[in-house]
Amino acid sequence: MTLRKGEKMTISIQEHMAIDVCPGPIKPIKQISDYFPRFPRGIPAAVTRSNSLKSNVSQPSVSPSESSREEEEDVDKLFGAYGAASTTTTTTTIAAPAKHDEEVDLDGYDSDDCTTLGTLDFSLLYDHENNALHCTINKAKMPKVYNRKGLKPMDHNGLSDPYVKLHLLPGASKANKLRTKTLRNTLNPTWNETLTYYGITDEDMIRKTLRISVCDEDKFRHNEFIGETRIPLKKLKPNQTKNFSICLEKQLPIDKTEDKSLEERGRILISLKYSSQKSGLLVGIMRCAHLAAMDANGYSDPYVKTYLKPDEDKKSKHKTAVKKKTLNPEFNEEFCYEIKHSDLAKKTLEVTVWDYDIGKSNDFIGGVVLGINAKGERLKHWFDCLKNKDKKIERWHTLTNELPGAVLSD
After folding, report:
1. Which are the contacts of 60, defined by CB distance < 8 A and separation ≥ 6?
2. Staple 241 to which of 95, 125, 157, 409, CB 3.0 to 4.6 Å?
3. pTM score, whole prediction
4. Sheet (strand 264-275) strand order
5. What's the CATH number where 120 sits?
């Protein structure tokens, strides 16, 4: 290339890069972070002290180019020594990050979940007199600090079709699942819907946890999970409404070590009374709640059978009427067993719930045993009946899929 007189030679950036890396091996381009690496808390004390000492020492006069080159080498040495501190045990000038820094990171993770999954506003009320847990689902939203509202979009249109479902843990999910209506094409759903669990006992309030999940409904594929939260029922006080506004979390694992033989299949309300006038035990089958669905339509056709065992003559069986297409049947039927009061301590009351099927064997839904060998509420109910003659005592009991001594066929 020929240059005219007085004309400076110019080099394009492409030519400059080619000259810089060729010939020879390609070297990485230096970046500003090579000279100023990130420290846990600012510049280390060793660097600060070294710089202050360097400023106090008189330096010989050097040219500007040599001075900048020496400073660059000094900085490289200092930062190189700092980098070696993490791999050698002899260097002790750099302190490890404080513990509370890690806690801040954890908080940041939670806030990220809030940003992605949103929050849910709801309230819980335990009606002690009626053994009912009322769950009012209000609305879902995003924190205002992120300057946007709504749930995480799950559909291609950037919206969701959200609904809320409830489960009581531990226990079978199908037997005690409740859900709200689905709201279409929204990221700011407002339900204002109350879902009620019946048959909640004091024992349930101690050991049960309410799982609240928000999901997106899809017509042509599986519904998608958005987020969930869990509330131990022991946090609630009887007859006092408690409001919640909680960040939704990622799906949490369910304890699969739970004994499947004690899987819940619903609740039953039973009344017991020993009548001195009739010289017998009056057993009332009042109602059932949240029974497991046994039919393809999502319902059951339930009825109840009772036995007082041991039953040598096999005459103790009583049976209620069948209630069609329901998981919350009301029976309000009473049966009488003629027996001496003193013999009740040797007896066991077995109550089983069945799904009636035409043309095939009836399906066993669940059962419960009351007697001297029972435990918890079942034992307490039996003792209260024995101690209080001529007094009707009602109790809710949990149905399980295992009933010792019962014949699981009709």
Report:
1. none
2. 125
3. 0.63
4. 318-319, 302-309, 348-355, 363-371, 393-400, 264-275, 280-289, 330-338
5. 2.60.40.150
CA distance 173 to 162: 19
Domain membership of residue 281 (yes or no) is: yes
Q: Are residues 115 and 234 in the same domain?
A: yes
Type and span of the H or E element at 214:
strand 209-216
More confident: 348 or 49: 348
Which of 258, 280, 302 delimits the end of a domain? 258
In a domain, 376, yes or no: yes
Task: Report pLDDT digits (tens) over 292-328.
Answer: 999 988 899 999 999 999 887 778 899 999 999 999 9
Last residue of a domain, one of 226, 243, 258: 258
C-alpha distance from residue 330 to each of 323, 324, 333 (Å): 8, 11, 9
Q: What are the Cα distances from residue 249, in Å, to 192, 209, 227, 246, 253?
A: 21, 16, 5, 9, 12
Say how many Å lie between the first and final Cα of the chain, rounded. 105
In a domain, 285, yes or no: yes
- Structural domain of 80: 14-85
Helix axes 45-56, 64-85, angle to 10 degrees: 150
Co-location of 211 and 145 in the same domain: yes
Chain-centre distance for alpha carbon 300: 28
Instruction: With a cut of 90, say whether residue 17 has pLDDT above it.
Output: no
Residues 58, 163, single domain; the answer is no
Cis peptide before 189 (omega within 30 of 0): no
